[in-house]
Amino acid sequence: MKPVLQVDHLVTSFTGTVRGRPVKAVDDVSITLHQGEIVGLVGESGCGKSTLGRSIVGLETPKSGKVVLDGVDLGALSGRRLREARRAIQYVFQDPYASLNDRQTIGEAIEEALIIGGMASREKRVARTAELLDQVGLAAAVRDRFTRELSGGQRQRVAIARALAVEPRVLICDEPVSALDLSIRAQVMNLFMGLRQDLGVACLFIAHDLALVRQAATRVYVMYLGRIVELGPSAELYERPSHPYTQLLLASVPDANPIVERQRKVPLIAGEIPSPTNPPSGCRFRTRCPLAVEACGQAPPPHKTVSPAHSAACVFAKELYAGQVSAIQLPA
């Protein structure tokens, strides 16, 4: 089955503050999304996750590479054709308090998207707004309320409804529940999973909360300092991580049981993330990796396939997958 979205060797860079050196926030990244699939993208803050999402949707301009939607290279389009194609990729921002205009009513916020999408009839817009609010679990009566009157969870549902207004094929969800209370996160996550089943929308779910990604995603990409270091089916990647960075990230996830969590020894990832203006040679994680050897600094390691749909960019990928070595070093 052909992917609905394919990103090929994408590079997005910015001018740095150190002698004008370029910062490759996204460096040679390739990902795919299929219809009705939720794909996770995880990594530490500053690794380039959000820049990748913004580059896909057109909020940042890639230096090179391709974003292909339903077989069409968006980089080859311009003007009206590009605007029409980009409607099929919508973005759900992290902070629902910043992404919505407090001076608009719910109906105005959603209808604005419908007007931009070309729906001229007022009657049709009202009906479509009611339908969208129902899809995200909000009563049609809220359409006349201002966004500032809503809770964070309700605001994020409105943001999702607005993104769905133009019937997108792909949603880019940038930490969509991190600004919400824990009690509300599960509700919004269930909403995303329901949309995948009911509408067949493909979703790139950007997050640093690995537990949420495990719950929702069918596949996961792990990103470090602008590059994908591991990818694979969610269940397998969580059970058999094959890159030291992934292994350490998973080992750092808090336990839901507070008694177990208080007694647990948490491995620390040594050092700080290197400067993106001057990343390490070879494997970018090698300066923090307890398994690093001389070969790690000579050239970027290629992805090694450890199972049919699972690969990692590490010289020890197969050994990590088999459990023969471990990057986890617990404090004394």
**Helicity, in percent?**
25-40%
Give the CATH superfamily of the domain at 1-88 and 168-217.
P-loop containing nucleotide triphosphate hydrolases
Would you count the extended β strands for me? Answer: 12
> What is CATH's topology name of the domain at 1-88 and 168-217?
Rossmann fold
Q: What is the alpha-carbon Rg in Å? A: 21 Å
Strand content: 15-25%
Compute the average pLDDT.
88
Which residues sit in consecutive blocks of at least 5 with pLDDT less than 50? none
Q: What is the makeup of the main sheet?
A: 8 strands, mixed
Number of helices: 12
State the end-to-end CA separation.
Answer: 50 Å
Subcellular location: Cell inner membrane
GO molecular function: ATP binding; ATP hydrolysis activity
Keywords: Amino-acid transport, ATP-binding, Nucleotide-binding, Transport
GO cellular component, one term: plasma membrane
